[in-house]
Every structure is written in C-alpha cells, then in structure tokens.
UniProtKB/TrEMBL annotation:
This is MFS transporter. The keyword Glycoprotein does not apply. One of its GO terms (molecular function) is transmembrane transporter activity. It comes from Ventosimonas gracilis. Signal peptide: none annotated.
Amino acid sequence: MSTPKRWGLQLLFGWMNLVLAVPSIYLMFGLPLVLRQHGWEGTEIGLLQLAALPAIFKFLFAMPVQRVRFGRGHFVHWLWLMSALLLAMYVAIGWQNLIAHKLPLFALTFLISIATTWLDIPVNALAVQWLPRSEQLRAGSIRSAALFIGAIVGGGVMVLVLSRWGWQAPFVIMGAALLGGCLPFAALRAQASLPVQDSATDNTPPAILADWASFFAQPGATQWTWMLLTSFPFIGAVWLFLKPLMLDQGMPLEQVAWTIGIAGGVTGALFSLIGGRLISVLGTARAIVLYLLAALAALVLLTVVVWAKLGAVWLTISALIVAASMGAISALMFGLTMFFTRRQRNASDYGLQSTIFTVARLVVPVAAGVMLDYLGQVGMLTGMSIGVLCALGLALRARHSVGATAQKVMARED
C-alpha cells in the first residue's frame, strides 16, 4: 500500500471517529449547560447521562456486524446502514426544538447513542481490516486525538453554534460531516484487495461464546485485558473531576473553561499523536511502563499542588501534564486494541475489548466521586494515584507478553 493511500485511510478513519465522538459529547456534556439555563433539574440532567449505557453492550452489537453478511464488503454495508439510521435520528431530533420536551429528547438521545455505538464497530473493524499492522499504532493515536478534538467541538463549539444559529444547526452540521465521511467508502468498497472474511454465520450462543473464549486464548490476551481495565480509567476519572476541582480551588469559571476545555483538549490531542509516534521508537513494552509512570507522576504532582494550595499557575501546569499523559495512554490503548483484534474476528474482538474498556471507564468515576465526597480532593487524588500505581504494577508484569504479541502480529503480516 502506497504512503499517500495509507495516509488517506488514516485521515478517513480519524474523521469518522471524530464524527462519532461529537454527537455523544454534545448531547451529554455540552447541551446540559443549555438545558440547565432552561430550568432542567439536576436529576433530569443526570438521567440524561444514562444514554451512554449502550456503549456497555458493544460486544453484543458486534455479533451481528461480524456474522450477518451483506455481500462483498459487508462491513461497508453495515457502516452505511447504521449511518442512515443515525442521519434519520438527526432529522428527528432536529425537526423541532425539544428543550421543553424532556421525554422525546431523552428517547432520541438514547437512540443516537445506540446508533453511534453500533456504527463505531464497522468503522474500526474496517480500520483493522484495511490498515497494515504497522500502521495501527498510528491509527490508535489519530483516534485518540480525534476524541480530544471531539470533546472541544461537542462540548464547546456546538454549544456556540446552538446559541447563535438555533436548535437545528448542530444537527445539520453533524449530519453533513457524517455524510461526507461515508461517501469515500463507495470507492474503497470496490477494491478487490480486501481480505477474505471468515465464512461462519452460526449465531447460536455456543458459537458466540466460542468467539469470546478464543479471544482470551490468544497469547498475552489475559494480561492485556487487565491492562485494558486499569491503565486509563483512573487518570480519566481525574480528568472528569478537574473542572469542579479547579473551581473549588478558586479558579474563575472562564479560566477553567479555557484550561480544561480548550488548552487541555489541544494538549491531549497533540500528545496522542506524539505518544503514538514514540511507541514505535521506544517499543511497546517500554512505552507501556513509561506512559504509566508519566501518568503516575502527573497525578502525584496534581495531588501536591492541591494539597499545598500552590495556586492557579501550578494548577494549570499540572492539569496540562495530566492531559498530556492521558493522551499518550489513550493512544497506546487504542493501538494495542487493534493488535489484539484478529482480522477474521475483527468486529467481535473489537466490540468485546471496547466493552471491557467502557465498563472500567464508567465504574471508576463513580468510586472517585464517592471518594471526593467522603475524603475530599486530596483523598480522591491520592486514591486515583494509587490506582495508577496498581496499574503500573500490572503493566510491569504484562509488558513483555503484550509487547511480544504486538511484535509477532506485525512480523507475521509484514
């Protein structure tokens, strides 16, 4: 595959991941700011976050994508099918202003969450199928950067679009972006060089369980699963609570918005790309340890800054260091997820790993919130630092087996 073609595919998959990140972030994190201004109660806004639940069941959504065939290039057909459903949801939710219609807004937000979760599976299954293994770490870093940019667009830009051009404008923009991303797949689908897919179509529970069991039978898969559960959620939970934490430390709201919402997002995106590039230089095993060490150092620094009340400048510096380490770790996680996704089981393996990652990412912030309420800011940050320390201990044990699997996968397909 030529270099321009590889970069074209990388940018296409990066765009699709950005397009899928923006609606979820806008509906669950950006729009609630507007809903609050229109009299929504905290409980109602909190219930809206339950629309994220479909992500937990991605492993179930992956099974029909893997096994139900729509002819040659069936992943592209799945991508178009789910994109059409998502576009229909954009039309439905944007048809009229739903701020005063709570039940329809929640229902459509939930359906959009299902559509984006389901669409994510064929998008990333195609990335595993079409990109050489040597390009998949870069794909992971681009995907991580896309998520950070999506947080800026969905949590900030789309709110400004809403306030200036009205309710429909964000959904028109998101629909146009999705449609633009889908069109190139018409040309890519016709390529004759696609790998031959596994022909199994048995959808019985034993066959599905056998798929999952065979995933864990891969060399290093058990160790990788523990890493997937522990490496990101603790620093991710701290990032989630950074805005209220900085407000409680006396930083003005506008400064917090710029620090976390804009500067933090840009820093995370930048270090996602840098971190993905450094993995190939450092080697996977060494990168695993160094990135978790950086995350631990970032959380320890933030804990000291909060404990010693060192002020806004040090808070800003430590927050940006947290963003940088989080970007590098997420690039590593997404890249290794592709390595442990077998080409013959690309949808089901990807869906299973995404579910494992999501469950941990949802559970740890709940624990962090409880710690914040009962132990205070320093107690919560200390607890999350201990969590990263435990993840580092697991990584020290798993790094060689996980790194060896990554090397073997690349060597086998070079």
